[in-house]
Structure formats: C-alpha cells, structure tokens
Design brief:
Layout lengths: L9 H32 L4 H10 L12 H8 L6 H24 L1 H27 L8 H22 L1 H12 L16 H24 L5 H19 L2 H23 L2 H8 L3 H29 L7 H29 L8
Helix pairs in contact: 1-9, 1-10, 1-11, 2-10, 3-4, 3-13, 4-5, 4-13, 5-6, 5-10, 5-13, 6-7, 6-8, 6-9, 7-13, 11-12, 12-13
The chain binds retinal and fe (ii) ion.
GO molecular function, one term: iron ion binding
Organism: Natronococcus pandeyae
InterPro entries: Blh_diox
C-alpha cells in the first residue's frame, strides 16, 4: 500500500483512522451532551442555550472556516502563493459582499437562502466524512451522495421546524428583524401545521429512500450502519433538544470538527501528528493557522453590528447578528469547500 504518494502512505492511513475516530467521537459527544443536558435541565432558558452557540465563536465553529485560504493549495500539495490568497480573498469579498446586500434589500429572502445554504453545506460536510473517513461504499453513485447530502443537511434545518416551530419563528425574527421587523411575516406560512406536515412527509420519504438505497447497494454493512446510526441519532437529537442549544453543539462539535480534521489531513505536519496520536500539537497547529482570519471574522461581526439598521441591544439581537455574520461568511466558505470536494473527486464517484 506504500506507494510513496501522500494518500497511500502508512502515515496518511493512520492519520485518517485517527480522524475518523475523532469525527465519530465528536458526533457521539454532540448527541450525548445535547440529550443529557436536556434530560437533566428540561426546557432551558434561551440565555443558557445562547452560551453553547456563543462558545462556537472561538471554539471550533468560526475557526473551521478560517483556514479557507490554505486548503486549496494544500490539497494540490503546492505552496500557498499570493495568487491563492487573492483568489480566496476575492471569493469572500464578492460572494460575501453580494449576499450582504441581499440581507439589506430582502431580509426574508436572505434568511430562506441561509437555511438552504446551511442545508447544502452541512450535508456536503457529512458526505465527505462518510465517503473519505468512514469509507462508505454504499454511497457509490452521485445520486446516492446527493440524496445523503439532502438528508444529512436537512435534519438540522427541518427537524427543529417540525418539533419546535415557535423557537424557529423566534430565530427567524431575530435575524430578519435586524433589517426589517415587518419582513418576517412573509415567512409565516412555513410555520403553519399544513406546511410542516408536507415538509415532514416529503423529508421522511427521502430519508427512508436514502437509507434503503444505501442498504441495497452493498454487502458490507459496517459503514452503512454508521451512516444509519448517525442519521437516526441526529433525527432524535434535533427532535428533543431545544434548537438553539442543538445547533450550538452541532455546529462546533459535529460539522466544524469534521471539517477541521479534513483540513489536517491536507496538511503534512498535522497529518504526521495525527498519525502519531499527538492530538494537542495537531490542534495547536490548526489553531495557529486559523487565528488570523478568526480575528478577521470578528471584525466582520463588529462591522455588521455597526452597519445594521437596528442598533443591537439585546441578547436576541446578538444572536441574530452572529447568525447573519455566519451566513455572509458561509456563502464564500461553501464555494471553497465545493472546490475542495471537486478536487477530492467527491462528486465524481466511480459508480
Ligand atoms: C440557530 C437556529 C437555527 C439556524 C441556524 C443556522 C442556519 C446556522 C448556520 C450555521 C452555519 C452555516 C455555520 C457554518 O458552517 C434554526 C435552524 C433556524 C432553528 C433555531 C435555531
Ligand atoms: Fe463549514
């Protein structure tokens, strides 16, 4: 197996095994933490739920995207040049800038787009983890991967709408209200029982179809079991854990951790440390790489706070600001991760 290439070297294989274990561990931690906090504390005050989301500003969440300028050259085993930095800077400026304008002009449209964007992005993150870390050979076609993307991304965006519509509406108003408090009424139809029932039935159908298709696609059911276990675990999690807390744990510990591990596997030194089980130094290197643009993201949040029409005064306003800031940073982040996916052949499977 030792071909001398980065991917086939024993070092890379050990590192990938460590990454896969950490990804599953982060996933289990998300579900157990969320469910046990909810079981012990019951309905948590929003201020307490905000805490978990607040931690993600510096802990795993925001930093996971702060190495976007390094990942594409590293994926090609090339040095990071000024051209690479200019390209990623340009993507952030243009995509983030244009999307910011949409928040000002049509905040309800921008919010709906944010939900779709997050669905796509969190779904694509899980498809990568399943294919590259878990070795999911039940996802050998583009159709099955697309279905998995919709299901995995759809769970965090749809299940809270079905289980906690009032909280969902509250968060919607927190974001849209920063720009135009009246505009959120355009989205009220989505919280009606009929709309939620239709969405629920449609989504449950896709979920069952996706797992059934995967089950029939292979004889080795180990990776499929991990996929099915994670999928059903996430449905249960988002059905019972209050949504701000649920997202506040999922974003850093599930989505961001998986992406950080992916970026480590593109980086020779971090890969080496992962392979030797030296997790502290591996994460230390990531933290150093991510520090400058995490500060950059904080500046974006501060600029946004000054620029929005409503002067942010309450914790609800802060929640809205943080999420609008994330929305604006996520669109360019998705462009970079999609380029990374294409580079890694995630969307050109053999099957
Ligand atoms: C907080 C929260 C919501 C939205 C969260 C979103 C959309 C987060 C997106 C984060 C991203 C894109 C991070 C980057 O990877 C919902 C679902 C409305 C339900 C109520 C709680
Ligand atoms: Fe991400």
């Amino acid at each position: 197996m030792s071909t001398g290439t980065a991917d086939g070297a024993p070092n890379a294989i050990d590192a990938r095994t460590t990454a896969a274990r950490l990804a599953v561990l982060g996933g289990v931690a998300t579900l157990l933490l969320g469910v046990s906090i909810t079981a012990v504390a019951g309905t948590l005050p929003r201020s307490v739920q905000f805490l978990s989301l607040g931690l993600s500003v510096l802990f795993l969440g925001v930093p996971h995207g702060a190495v976007d300028h390094l990942v594409l050259p590293r994926a090609r085993d090339a040095p990071v040049t000024h051209r690479d930095l200019a390209l990623v800077g340009g993507i952030y400026l243009v995509a983030g800038g244009l999307y910011a304008v949409v928040w000002w002009l049509a905040p309800a449209v921008a919010f709906a787009a944010f939900i779709l964007l997050t669905l796509t992005h969190w779904g694509q993150g899980d498809v990568y983890a399943l294919v590259a870390l878990v070795g999911a050979d039940h996802l050998e076609t583009r159709v099955s991967r697309t279905l998995t993307l919709i299901v995995r991304g759809g769970i965090p965006m749809l299940v809270p709408l079905l289980a906690f519509p009032a909280e969902y509406a509250f968060v919607t108003r927190a974001l849209v209200g920063l720009f135009d408090p009246a505009a959120a009424t355009a989205l009220e139809f989505a919280f009606e029982p009929e709309a939620r029932l239709a969405l629920g039935i449609g989504f449950a159908t896709l979920l069952v179809a996706s797992l059934a298709l995967g089950y029939r696609a292979t004889d080795d059911h180990g990776p499929w079991l991990i996929d099915a276990g994670e999928t059903l675990g996430l449905v249960a999690y988002f059905a019972v854990v209050p949504p701000i807390l649920a997202i506040g744990l999922y974003f850093p510990l599930w989505h961001s951790l998986r992406h950080i591990l992916r970026t480590m596997l593109l980086d020779g030194r971090a890969t080496d440390r992962l392979a030797r089980g030296r997790l502290g130094p591996a994460f230390g290197r990531f933290a150093r790489d991510a520090a400058p643009l995490t500060v950059g993201a904080l500046l974006v949040f501060a600029g946004l706070a000054l620029a929005v029409p409503t002067t942010p005064a309450t914790t609800t306003d802060l929640l809205g600001l943080y999420l609008v800031g994330i929305a604006i940073l996520t669109l360019p982040h998705v462009v970079v991760v999609t380029l990374l996916d294409l580079e890694a052949g995630i969307w050109t499977p053999r099957g």
